[in-house]
Amino acid sequence: MAHRIEVYSTVPDTRAEVRKKKLLGNAYSVREVYVVDAYTIDKEISADDLTKIGSALANPVVQGFSVDTPAKVPAFNIAIEVGFMPGVTDNIGHTAKEIAEDLLKLKFAEGEAIYTSQITFIDGDLSKEIGQEIGEDMANPLIQRILVKTAEEFQKEGGMGIRVPKVNLAHEPQIDEVSLDLTDEELQKLGKEGVPNKDGTRRGPLALDLPSLKVIQEYFAREGRMPTDIEMESLAQTWSEHCHHTIFAATLDEIKDGIYKYYIKRATNEIRASLGQKDFCISVFKDNSGGIDFDDAWLVTDKVETHNSPSALDPFGGAITGIVGVNRDAIGFGMGAKPIANRYGFCFADPRDEKPLYKGANKTQKMLSSRRIMDGVIEGVKVGGNCSGIPTPQGFMFFDKSYKGKPLVFVGTVGLIPKTVNGAPSWEKSAKPGDKIVVVGGRVGMDGIHGATFSSEAMDSGSPSTAVQIGDPITQKRLSDALVKEARDQGLYNSITDNGAGGLSCSVAEMAKECNGCAVDLDSIPVKYPGLDPWQIWISESQERMTLAVPPEKLNEFVDLMHRRGVEVTVIGDFNDSGRCTVTHGGKKIMDIDLNFLHDGLPHKTLSSTYTKVTHEEPSVACPANLTETLNKMLARPNLCSFDFLPYLYDYVVQGGTILGPLHGKGQVNARATVIAPVLTSKKGVVLSQSLYPRYSGIDTYRMSACAIDTAIRNAISVGGSLDELALLDNFCWCSSDEPERLGQLKEAGRACYDYATAYKTPFVSGKDSMFNDFKGYDENGNKVKISVLPTLLISSFGVMQDYRTCVSIDPKFAGDLVYILGATGEELGASEYFDELGFIGNGAPQVNAKKALALYKSFTEATKKNLIASAESVCAGGLGISLARMAIAGDLGMEISLQNLPAISPLTRNDYTLFSESQSRLIVTVNPNLVAQFEEAFKGQDIAQIGKVRADKSFVVKGLNGETIVETDVATLNKAYRSVFNK
Predict the structure, then answer these.
(1) H-helix segments, 719-808
(2) Which of 24, 127, 217, 570 is 20 to 30 A (C-alpha) from 322?
(3) Fold for the domain defined by 3-156
């Protein structure tokens, strides 16, 4: 018999107020809203024990609870209950179960659980149909169920009723043989739609092209048999674009080694060779994260991932899975690094765009709105980071209509690991023949099935809901601490990796390369519910799992430690040197593939590209005589305005290592870069920054890539970082990557990565690519549409500061300090924020002069070491106007600026173009007048000029190229515009 506990608020509930405001904003007739949390307990428990559980779940100061009776709420006319669908990870329910077990000193049996849901009671003039409409807006139908009742139905039926969302597959697990005696057309259908079921339906995309399927066909012909479904699925995961990066590895035109080896890896190899003894890279491109030298005792690691496709289906689940997944990339580096900082980057459509999209014809399979996607992604990263006890000090948001079909969700994690673990280099690991294959963490379900292959294709009506996962940061925190803080240093395992894309099929097979073989027994793998087919268990991407190689003599000690720390642990097989990957189920061998074929049998692609220079219309708008209102409008653009609400949501001070946080100055302006202290007893810091310029792709992807690199580096330099110990990470998010023109754009972006990384001597240490960020579906009128993201390259910088006490923040500190511009300005506004405000793209995307920038950045670093700079701002999107305004807001001090003395790349002819040009390699600094001589000497012979001073009266005045006043306002007005978008 199941029971139900309902927890209600006895004081005004902020959640209810927020929900009420939203309903009123959507023009619903609402008087009041109440929110009740429901816990359905699928276990026989006494009344006394249920009361104890209710007391533990409710805060007695502000909440009450009821047991097996509806909570008492004031008058209402509609009740809407939203809970998870069967099989969807319910983190709060899982935690509630642990609370009950700890409290009552009992164990829930297999299949018993606590499930959560939430009831929204609305008092208003609403019909049941309107209530259903509201419920559908509150819930994601892919993962959540909705129940709507009128007040009359609620009273008559004694509440919402008890529903246990337990999975009941009513299915006998089976292994199917997959026939490859197919025509080319049938093989292509197999690759696109998946293995056929007995009823004629298909299981979902294998994302295998015809050449790959032909190679598989030939392999099994040599084996003298047809493959099983688990073998086909395993090959699909391992060979997927998401896991194998086939496009970056393919021969492209004259580049035989592919973009990755020729441009990215070659750049790093050449830089490291040129640095010689000063090479600070330790482990690059071969592990879950990239690792660099921190000091004599420690390494720091970094990895940035994308979770775009899952976030389009379920924004919360996609984002939380992304952040806890990249946390595991840190945990899986070497012998295990401790996650010490998270970073994020979100590319969204405008949240005010309410036009619907549909995956299916006839307005079926409605996609979530831009606002729902934004809110869900933000919440997912928040819960993932905050509940894991990992600070999130660095991030950004970028908005463009091209991200409406599929958002880009970047998440990253910095890790810390000792240089030696048990006397051996910590970054080296290797499974050995005879080691036990051990899985720790969560159980396996249907969540995340075909996640890797789904992410390797455009989103369309066939995109599977099973690709959705929801991470559990609490479970992962336990396993992280048990591994990194205890098992690692006790030498209880030989190797470790993350269970990410492809699940066990990838993690076990990848580790098997270290010793050349593995044997797995699927019967031993713990599952969330019975009835899963073997192939589903093998490729499921259920979260919070790590795979380890544990020596037999250490197994009992390892298992005992995990049990004592509340971490589920299972032995699922053995590593060996057989040269094969074998899997058994029910005593029968169902997978037996040569390990070399599994990893290296994928046919090498040969691709060709084209590249067409596109010319756009130039703006035909006269320069306004007064740019005050223009500046305010620019500050209120989504890509330039404040998003300070995110740092307030994301804990960035936990672990106590934040030196320069995500908000600077009295005015709390969003930072371009942040600094953390990984080792609290050391004055050394780690600087983090990111940059992207997707709109430049519409003009020139080479310049787009160059600008992203220059800005990510400049941002780090602006807070006191140094080129001497600065590394880069690349994340390519492309679209339609089977089209020659898109490949040509990709090739140009890769070429710039090589050119500028080698120019600055900043090696790439890690990266990721996501190639098919396209949406194919239907618009609000039922017309077919294809929405492709702008070709996007995120460059993240990450490096070591010798002394974080020399950090520089954005905010001017003292009235009377002088304002300097470093770097030259040109009328480079192609694809700029200003041209977009005018409704144009233009053509003159900024061009980076690496030689001049390199000298400037080195001089800047030396100046910060001598404390010659009081404040600094990296000039980015929006140009000088936005950067100067940000500094004034941050310091809550006025400025008096003149554009007359700007160092120029070419003649400056218009005030608006000068003020909003996005020319690269520029910084604005404030300097103590008493240090001017030393400061100017530090930049002797370079493009610098004094352009104004800091004022005490909070007036903000800019004089134009001819000395006329073009902006006249004050800090309060600027601040109001800066915070006008997200602080409503």
Answers:
(1) 740-760
(2) 570
(3) Mth169; Chain: A , (3.30.1280)
> Residue 434's pLDDT band (boundaries 50, 70, 90)?
very high
- Which residue is it, tokens 């007739």? 29
Burial level of 969, CB count in 10 A (0-12/13-18/19+)?
A: buried
Phi, psi of 164 (to 5 degrees): -100, 110
- The DSSP output letter for 370 is H
**3-state SS class at 967:** strand
Q: Say if residue 936 is exposed, middle or buried (CB neighbours under 10 Å; 0-12, 13-18, 19+).
A: middle
User: Using CA atoms, how far apart are residues 687 and 798, in angstroms rounded to an integer?
Assistant: 6
Distance CA 593, CA 597 (A): 7
Of 83, 150, 156, 163, nearest to 119 (Cα)? 83
Q: Checking DSSP bridges between strand 281-283 and strand 290-293, what pairing results, if any?
A: antiparallel
Question: pLDDT tens digits for 29-83?
Answer: 999 999 999 999 999 999 999 999 999 999 999 999 999 999 989 999 999 999 9
How far is residue 830 CA from its own chain's centroid? Answer: 28
**Neighbouring C-beta atoms of residue 620, cutoff 10 Å:** 7
Give the pLDDT score at 242: 62
Contact present, 243 and 501 (Cβ < 8 Å): yes
**What is the 3-state composition of the chain as percent helix, strand, coil, each rounded to the nearest 5?**
35, 25, 40
C-alpha to C-alpha distance for 468 and 132, rounded to whole angstroms: 24
Asked if residue 725 lies in contact with residue 761, where contact means CB atoms within 8 angstroms, the answer is no
Q: Which amino acid is at 889?
A: I
Yes or no: say if 62 and 49 are a contact pair by the CB < 8 Å rule: no
DSSP one-letter code for 849: -
- What is the CB neighbour count within 10 angstroms for residue 570? 16
Q: What is the DSSP letter of 527?
A: B
Strands (DSSP E) along 426-504, which ranges? 436-441, 495-498
Distance of CA 427 to the CA centre of its chain: 24
Integer Cα distance of 192 and 202 in angstroms: 10
DSSP SS3 for 516: coil
CA distance 838 to 834: 6
pLDDT at 165 over 90: no
Paired residues of 904 in beta bridges = 825
pLDDT at 450: 57
| CA 554 to centroid of chain Cα atoms | 36
Please give the class, per CATH, of domain 809-984: alpha beta
Half-sphere exposure of 266 (CA within 13 A, CB side): 15
Q: Does 809-984 match 3-156 at the fold level?
A: no
Residue bearing the bigger pLDDT, 693 or 455: 693
For residue 945, what are its two tokens? 């000029």
The residues pairing with 797 across neighbouring beta strands, listed in sequence order, are 689, 728
Taking only the tens place, the pLDDT of each residue in 737-784 is 889 999 999 999 999 999 999 999 999 999 988 888 999 999 999 999
Is residue 384 within a helix (H) or strand (E), and if so which, with residue range?
helix 370-386
Contact of 379 with 323, CB cutoff 8 Å = no
* Residue found under tokens 């049996």: 109
| pLDDT for 448 | 60
Closest CA to 496 of 340, 339, 337, 336: 336
- Cβ neighbours of 815 (radius 10 Å): 14
pLDDT band at 205 (very low <50, low <70, confident <90, very high): confident
CB atoms within 10 A of CB 174: 11
| Cα-to-chain-centroid distance, residue 287 | 19
Q: What is the DSSP string of 407-441?
A: -EEEEEEEEEEESEETTEETT-----TTPEEEEEE
**Residue 77: in which H helix or E strand, if any?**
none
The amino acid at residue 779 is D
Q: Is 190 helix (H, G, I), strand (E, B) or coil?
A: helix
Angle value at C-alpha 331, between 326 and 332, nearest 5 degrees: 90
Q: Where are the domains of the chain?
A: 3-156, 184-243, 809-984
